[in-house]
Design brief:
Helices cover 57% and strands 12% of the residues. Among the domains are: 52 residues; 106 residues, Immunoglobulin-like (Sandwich), CATH 2.60.40. It is an alpha+beta fold. It is built from 14 helices and nine strands. InterPro entries: C-type_cytochrome_biogenesis, Cyt_c_biogenesis_CcmI, Ig_CycH, TPR-like_helical_dom_sf, TPR_CcmH_CycH. It is found in: Cell envelope. It comes from Vibrio aquaticus.
Length: 405
């Protein structure tokens, strides 16, 4: 605010200077000089006429007329001091009222129409940006009031105007727009954040979340692609599976929705308050599939590799579930891109090999995992593999790939 007052004083001073400049640099008035020259010329002409009239005998007292002519010439010369005083007085009479008028109008109009209170409020909001941002980024359960959301939006837009390369700022603006159900603004802000930081998981997740709410099918496909990349990372945010489950349910892909919700249950555990909510979601999806509630189960498999494993990035990861006695014929199997390790995959009845024997029918099981290097399931030479111990259905399974055929 101090800068504003300094700038305003400078501008007003310049305005007053522009008003006074014509008086300061006023050209010298040559009227007196011209008048003197004219009087001299007239005086000389009159002397010539008097001489001619004297010669002709028309004038009897020539000297008296000459004295009168000289006296009239002297009377016509103005006093310099009086003239200078009048000029200075007339200049100040214009400059001083003009300066007062400029100052009064400038500050008067500003206080009337300048919205100074709004400017002060805007500056206070800008100073409060770090605190509001920290509150928005806090764990779930911390919510901002409507006024705080408006303040944060104003502060963010101000900051992004001067710092357009701030990906965190665009991410926050996108999240605020999501909270306000402003999908277009959210997509625009998240897109800018993604262009600046396309490998940031938080940005990818935010962008996917915004795109998932769009009406355009291409935007939704882009969201699924982003979520697919996030699933392949070493650490997968719970919200990724939540979005995948939501999308699957909306597309009436109920088995996939059940699978993702089951993964979420295994990630948070029964002690989490959200566990029961996920169970109700699973139950609802199973009802939509026409299944009997409680029969569908899944197997969560965490896969890791030992240090000596050297695998082609183009290889495939084959995960198969077998009966607890290690029967070679799998009950369920799935094929995934190799990705990174450790990683977690989930198999359910949708991965069953035979329609008459579902994965959920097993009471106990074991899991085998293989890195298929040539794309042919029948050949195993050179492939790396690992297998788990027998576990009961519902228990998490861990497999270390450490052997080679």
């Amino acid at each position: 605010m101090t800068l504003f007052w300094i700038a305003s004083v400078i501008l007003i001073a310049i305005s007053i200077l522009l008003i006074a400049l014509p008086f300061i640099k006023k050209k010298a008035n040559k009227d007196a000089q011209l008048r003197d020259e004219l009087n001299k010329a007239l005086y000389k002409d009159r002397l010539s006429e008097l001489e001619e009239e004297t010669d002709e005998g028309l004038v009897e007292n020539q000297q008296d007329l000459i004295d009168d002519l000289k006296q009239s010439l002297l009377d016509d010369i103005p006093k310099d001091g009086q003239k200078q005083k009048e000029t200075t007085t007339s200049a100040l009479a214009v400059i001083v009222p003009s300066a007062i008028l400029v100052i009064a109008l400038s500050y008067g109009l500003y206080f009337k129409f300048g919205a100074s209170e709004d400017v002060l409020a805007w500056q206070e909001v800008n100073e409060n940006l770090p605190a509001l941002s920290k509150k928005l980024m806090a764990p779930e359960g911390v919510e901002l009031s409507e006024d705080e959301m408006q303040d944060l939006t104003l502060a963010l837009r101000t900051r992004l105007h001067y710092q357009p390369d701030d990906s965190t700022g665009w991410l926050l603006l996108g999240r605020i727009a999501l909270a306000n159900r402003d999908v277009d603004t959210s997509i625009g802000a998240m897109k800018k954040a993604y262009k600046l930081e396309s490998d940031n998981p938080d940005v990818m997740l935010g962008y996917a979340q915004a795109l998932m709410l769009a009406d355009d099918e291409m935007d939704q496909d882009k969201a699924r692609s982003l979520l697919g990349k996030l699933v392949q990372q070493d650490y997968v945010d719970l919200r990724v599976f939540s979005l995948l489950a939501f999308d699957a349910y909306e597309r009436k892909d109920y088995p996939a929705a059940v699978r993702y919700w089951s993964i979420m249950q295994q990630m948070i555990g029964p002690s989490d308050s959200r566990y029961e909510m996920l169970a109700r979601s699973i139950e609802n999806a199973q009802k939509q599939m026409g299944q009997q509630v409680g029969t569908g189960q899944s197997v969560s498999v965490t896969v890791n590799v030992s240090e000596q494993v050297q695998a082609d990035p183009n290889s495939a990861l084959i995960v198969s579930v077998h009966t607890a006695d290690g029967s070679p014929m799998p009950i369920a199997a799935a094929r995934y891109p190799l990705g990174t390790f450790p990683r977690t995959v989930v198999l359910d009845d949708g991965n069953s090999m035979l329609a008459e024997r579902k994965l959920s029918s097993l009471e106990s099981l074991m899991v085998r995992v293989r890195i298929d290097s040539d794309g042919n399931v029948a050949t195993k030479d050179g492939d790396w593999f690992g297998e788990s111990e027998a576990v009961k259905m519902g228990q998490p399974v861990e497999v270390m790939i450490n052997s080679q055929y």
